[in-house]
């Protein structure tokens, strides 16, 4: 996993996400609605919607709220007009950052993203200034305490996975986007419980960060994620688990 993915896992373990549940619900609803608008309301035929619903259920979102979000996406219910926007930029130590947003006001969101980057040792870049460094992939994470790498690999490779490796206390599966839905079905059929599954952007190469540079990078990521319109933040840094735990402990 990238440093950012590991950081998200640590925050979930510490329960930090609970304090922002209202904001998280808003972002999850937008993702469900957007996924349904783009790929339709059939969960089985729309892997993006399926993963969005799974993420919502993991946060204990009520079923009726999920259903309304889907219907807004398919046009059965009236909803706000949301567009997807991607921003590219650089953070501390030249780290490449890709920011996915969903907004009803592009000018407001652009201004907010630029301000956070500028205040946290970063800057907004031009289109394709960093996007070429990332590849769209499917990622699954399993608890290494429950499944060893060989167990996961045996199933994952049958489903067309590209890579399986142990990273700390997780076994991580990477696939191309076309194989993602099939792997979802296969893992579910085998009763293998993944802790995390998503379509995401994976950096081609990473920049190792430690100490003050790591702290500044994580501060920037958190400030970007706090923006209401920002859905996901991808970066090409790598920070050791121990270092991330240290930063998290500082609050």
Structure description:
The protein has 251 residues and is of the alpha+beta class. The chain has three domains: 3-74, Integrase, N-terminal zinc-binding domain (Arc Repressor Mutant, subunit A), CATH 1.10.10.200; 86-132 and 205-249, Alpha-Beta Plaits (2-Layer Sandwich), CATH 3.30.70.980; 133-203, YebC, transcriptional regulation domain (Alpha-Beta Plaits), CATH 3.30.70. 46% of the residues lie in helices and 23% in strands. It has helices spanning 3-14, 21-39, 47-58, 63-74, 106-119, 149-158, 177-189, 211-225, 241-249; strands at 83-90, 96-103, 123-124, 134-143, 163-167, 170-175, 196-203, 207-208, 230-235, 237-238. Strand 5 and strand 6 form a beta hairpin. Helix 1 (3-14) packs across helix 9, helix 2 packs antiparallel against helix 3 and helix 2 packs parallel to helix 4 (63-74). The longest helix has 19 residues, at 21-39. The protein is globular and about 45 Å long.
């Amino acid at each position: 996993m990238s440093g950012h993915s590991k950081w998200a896992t640590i925050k979930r373990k510490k329960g930090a996400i609970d304090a922002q549940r209202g904001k998280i619900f808003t972002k999850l609803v937008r993702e469900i609605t957007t996924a349904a608008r783009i790929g339709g309301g059939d969960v089985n035929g729309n892997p993006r919607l399926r993963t969005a619903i799974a993420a919502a259920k993991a946060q204990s979102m009520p079923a009726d709220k999920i259903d309304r979000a889907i219907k807004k996406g398919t046009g059965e219910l009236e909803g706000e007009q949301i567009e997807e926007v991607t921003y590219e930029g650089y953070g501390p130590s030249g780290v490449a950052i890709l920011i996915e947003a969903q907004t009803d006001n592009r000018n407001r969101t652009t201004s907010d993203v630029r301000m956070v980057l500028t205040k946290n040792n970063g800057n907004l870049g031009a289109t394709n200034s960093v996007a070429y460094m990332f590849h769209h992939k499917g990622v699954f994470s399993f608890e290494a305490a429950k499944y060893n790498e060989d167990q996961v690999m045996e199933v994952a490779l049958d489903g067309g996975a590209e890579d399986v490796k142990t990273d700390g206390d997780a076994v991580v599966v990477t696939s191309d986007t076309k194989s993602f839905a099939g792997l979802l079905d296969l893992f579910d059929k085998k009763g293998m419980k993944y802790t995390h599954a998503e379509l995401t952007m994976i950096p081609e190469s990473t920049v190792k960060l430690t100490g003050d540079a790591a702290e500044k990078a994580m501060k920037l990521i958190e400030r970007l994620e706090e923006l209401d319109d920002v859905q996901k933040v991808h970066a090409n840094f790598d920070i050791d688990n121990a270092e991330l735990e240290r930063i998290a402990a500082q609050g």
